[in-house]
Design brief:
Elements lengths: L18 H4 L7 E7 L16 H4 L8 H16 L6 E8 L7 H15 L1 E11 L6 H9 L4 E7 L3 H7 L7 H12 L3 E8 L6 H14 L3 E6 L7 H7 L8 H17 L3 E4 L2 E3 L7 H7 L3 E5 L4 E4 L2 E5 L3 H9 L5 E6 L2 H12 L6 E2 L5 H12 L5 H5 L2 E2 L3 H5 L1 H8 L1
Helix pairs in contact: 3-4, 3-12, 4-5, 5-7, 7-8, 8-10
Amino acid sequence: MPSVLPDGDPVPASGALPASALDGLGSRPFGFYVHVPFCVTRCGYCDFNTYTAAELGPGASQRDYASTAIEEVRLARRVLGDTALPVETVFVGGGTPTLLPPEDLVRVLHVIDEEFGLAAGAEVTTEANPESVTQESLEVLRNGGFTRMSFGMQSAREHVLAVLDRRHTPGRAAGAVQEARKAGFEHVNLDLIYSTPGETDDDWRASLDAALAAGPDHVSAYSLIVEEGTRLAARIRRGELPMPDDDVAADRYLIAEEMLTSAGFRWYEVSNWAVSDEARCRHNLLYWTGGDWWGVGPGAHSHVGGTRWWNVKHPASYAARLAAGESPGYAREELTAGDRVVERLMLELRLATGFPLADLRPSARAACARALADGLLDVEPFKRGRAVLTLRGRLLADALIRDLS
């Protein structure tokens, strides 16, 4: 089941933000995340805030969800006032956003445009399971203003998909990419997962081969994380499946780097590769570089000017709050200057552009010097005042970030 929301300070019923959050509003990139919390079935490894029809219960409706989300977009406009905030990126995630009719997703996008205005050349992405789209639905999305598709492929091996409880057939992701290209999408991502129990090196190479043959311009590859409370965690605890091994995961990462680089992709974040700067996910870069965004939907998180808040989790509670004219915010926190530096470090050090050494505390600079000596940071960028991970540093990024922060 979905994980528990963190505690924090209460969010006013109006959703009003502190003055400090509104200071400088409009000077930072601004985007929208729209969470669609519906799935046909729950994958065994997933602890996202999603619900099947059987889990949804009374008071929430997939049919009415777009209208409810639109109410939060309008709330966002009231809270943020009249400041010009051209929306540079929109990302619709889930769940499975494409379980909604494509016209509903387009309707939400159009209200974002009406209330805030989309910036020229805005990136508009939706996630999709490969089996949840058709040629016709993709054409509706493209004609309605979506510019980028992100498909959850995970693996090209049927037995690996079975362990993950994924329902699509191994070849369906490639078909979805082809359909997206035919519909006019220039930018298409495939998500992959490695180190699933039962996966071999050859399985992983086959998945990468299949992904590359499909013709995306972006690939995300993540090591499987076993989250407490999931069906996968229970199976591992009972001894039905082995726990993923960190050394195996490192080997799989090296395979991904070799194969993707050979195919013309370049890493720009530890888990993300693109064929060009234009193919990079600009919405994720907004997160990673400290931009502002409003998260629409149950459990969605938002960040504006150092204030972060998150919505109530259940779709019924979310709908009820908005129907009463109230913010669906569950709790919030105001980040201190120190918090913000640490968060910057955690996110920016994972980027190929790295982190400026001048912004580190003296103790962290000393740790950087040790990391350089250990081969975790690249020498040439270091000379120019930036901490940039080497390939070995990417394998140990989490440990290095803990050391620096």
